[in-house]
Design a protein that fits this description.
The protein is built from 23 helices and 26 strands. By secondary structure, it is α+β, with helices and mostly antiparallel strands. About 0% of the residues have low confidence.
Length: about 625
């Protein structure tokens, strides 16, 4: 958006915050000063935080509710936090801890995505809620941790670690959200003896409260059905429901047991179980080096879907379950979502822990950390650790092999079907095994076979980008290919001095590229790959000829920056490809080296337009760019 639009929205947000008295932690008007500490201080809770009594029996839940108006809400699976506000400002945030004492995490709480740091209520407010990380954010964060990091097993563990960080800037990057579920104190406010009114009050202060439904004996089945259906697609981790009496005075009059309040009851999902037989254990290496066991069993129906595999997580669990091929096992879906082994009825204990990595064949070693055994591949060149390189190799701008998603590549690598780039073109020899894999079949294999054959005929720029050579992107690959007339042998034999003569290739890039081709392992890998592919002679055909009627090239050697909305090209990448094919270069920011700024709105007040005007750089429209490229419409 333009600066004008941004400023208008910013001013509107400031006005709304002033009117409502609510400022959320993620608001751009609220600048967080991140805080790092040596340790988290402990603090005793003003009131002990008791655990809820639990049941999986709907009859017991129905008996608890009786004729009382009851709020039935999600039992979120994260970390419980107590918040204290005074004079409209967040003063303190403390974790549940052991129920009596918790960790003070105030600086971290101020980075929760949806938490109000300022509210309109000016009295002392104390409330409890759950800090959580959604399933999509959990997947995104795990994927961003890098190959050397140990991945988190579930969102609850990730949230617990994120909320307790010593540096609040780390917490800020974890997309933690807060959902209020209990109001402890709000001086001077009459809630008319209703928990529902308390929730409404919290919502008016800017808090997101747990979703709830009003239930009684008459509609309980309908309420339970609603939650049971919604949890299948619900993005916030939940391990059940909570039933809470709406009548505050009645609930308080019941008092507490030694461990639990009597005004609420937790209802845990009744896990549907099925008996089946274990047929195999797959050992799947990951990009972290961990080799994770997965149980394969005869398919069974659970919670409306067919299930045939379940993660066993680590070697310790394999040993404790005493697993063996053919054993009769009981399986279920934890929280109605995640397949798990509940029990091994046979307990033959015949599973052998492998001593080699299935992806690379190198020795695998048992590690023991705090009593938990894991199997680890320590080979730094293991194909499973290089999954990103395989993803780039098959991508559209590289070898363009359709049908090979990251998930499929991980499966093939984990089974040892792929250890090098060339192995991708030899997948036909594993066709029977691939067809038998979950998610594949005859049709999928036929499509994959055709896509692989189509990818064998390629061009040098695609190959150079696919190889993952440091600093060689799509544009640089085309420039290098054009300089050496599309000859792979000339490229692989080039010295850094020759590479430096290429316009746009500097010493750092030249050194990295020359060193890559001198590495014996890389040369062997490339030799193997060249036996499987056919490189077309000459560079890629340009999208435009880049000349004017007199034959002069008007784009060659020029530096362009593209901004704003495009109408002639489908996207910026296609515009960039056209410029590069004509011998030009595209960068991301305007500088003194820029020759043209492409913007269909030359009068825009954007930063790039203002910079271009200050530096005297021509601002051209997309149509003018097409004319420079020799394309007139």
């Amino acid at each position: 958006m333009s600066n004008l639009e941004f400023d208008a929205l910013y001013e509107e947000l400031e006005r709304l915050e002033l009117e409502t008295g609510i400022v959320l932690a993620a608001s751009p008007t609220h600048k967080v000063g991140y805080e790092a500490v040596d340790e988290l201080p402990k603090e005793a809770h003003e009131r002990p935080m008791l655990s809820l009594a639990k049941t999986k029996d709907t009859k017991q839940l129905r008996s608890f509710i009786g004729t009382h108006k009851t709020l039935v809400s999600w039992k979120l699976d994260g970390l419980t936090v107590v918040l204290t506000y005074r004079d409209g400002k967040l003063e303190k945030a403390v974790t549940r801890g052991n129920g009596l004492t918790g960790d003070v995490i105030t600086a971290n709480a101020r980075t929760f995505r949806n938490l109000p740091v300022r509210i309109s209520y000016r009295g002392e407010l104390v409330l409890r809620g759950e800090a959580v990380i959604s399933y999509p954010d959990f997947e995104r964060i795990n994927a961003s941790l890098g190959e050397s990091a140990a991945l988190y097993k579930n969102p609850r563990n990730l949230c617990s670690g994120s909320v307790r960080q010593l540096n609040s800037e780390v917490t800020a990057g974890r997309s933690v959200r807060f959902y209020a579920f209990s109001l402890v104190k709000a001086e001077g406010v009459d809630f008319e003896n209703s928990r529902q009114n308390q929730y409404s009050f919290l919502a008016k202060q800017g808090f997101e409260t747990v979703e709830y439904r009003i239930a009684d004996a008459g509609n309980l089945d309908e309420v339970l059905t609603y939650f049971e259906q919604k949890i299948r697609t619900y993005e916030i981790p939940s391990d059940g429901l909570v039933a809470l009496y709406d009548d505050i005075a009645f609930g308080d009059s019941l008092g507490n047991t030694a461990k639990s309040p009597r005004n609420a009851l937790a209802f845990k999902w009744q896990d549907e179980q099925a008996l089946t037989h274990l047929t195999a254990i797959e050992w799947n290496p990951s990009r972290t080096g961990l080799i994770n066991p997965v149980a394969i069993f005869e398919p069974v129906e659970l919670e409306g879907t067919t299930v045939s595999r379940a993660s066993v997580h680590n070697v310790s669990i394999v040993r404790s379950l005493m697993l063996g091929i053919g054993d009769q096992i009981s399986v279920y879906k934890a929280n109605m979502i995640i397949p798990q082994i509940a029990e091994n009825l046979t307990k033959s204990g015949t599973i052998r822990i492998p001593d080699r990595c299935p992806a690379c064949g190198h020795p695998a070693f048992l590690h023991n950390a705090q009593g938990t055994e894991t199997l680890v591949c320590e080979n730094p060149d293991c194909a499973a650790k290089r999954i990103h390189s395989f993803v780039q190799f098959v991508s559209r701008d590289a070898m363009n092999i359709e049908g090979l998603s990251e998930m499929s590549l991980e499966k093939f690598i984990g089974r040892g079907l792929i250890r090098s780039f060339a192995d991708l073109f030899r997948l036909e020899r594993w066709s029977e095994e691939i067809i038998s894999m979950e998610g594949f079949g005859e049709k999928s294999m036929q499509n994959l076979r055709e896509n692989i054959e189509r990818a064998r005929d390629t061009t040098l720029p695609r190959v150079l980008f696919a190889l993952g050579i440091p600093n060689i992107g799509v544009a640089n690959a085309k420039v290098v290919s054009r300089f050496f007339d599309g000859d792979i042998e000339r490229v692989r034999g080039a010295t850094k001095e020759e590479l430096c003569r290429i316009d746009g290739v500097g010493p750092v890039m030249a050194n990295a590229m020359a060193a890559w081709f001198q590495e014996e392992g890389n040369r062997e890998m490339l030799d193997d790959l060249l036996t499987q592919i056919r490189i077309k002679p000459g560079p890629d055909e340009p999208a435009f000829d880049g000349t004017d009627p007199s034959g002069r090239n008007l784009a060659a050697g020029k530096v362009f920056v593209i901004t704003g909305t495009l109408t002639q090209f489908p996207n910026r990448r296609r515009a960039q490809e056209a410029i590069e094919a004509a011998g030009g270069k595209v960068t991301g920011s305007v500088s003194g080296k820029t020759d043209y700024l492409v913007n269909n709105d030359p009068a825009s007040a954007s930063n790039k337009n203002q910079t271009a005007k200050k530096l005297g750089i021509p601002i051209i429209t997309e149509q003018q760019l097409l004319e420079l490229l020799g394309e007139r419409s």
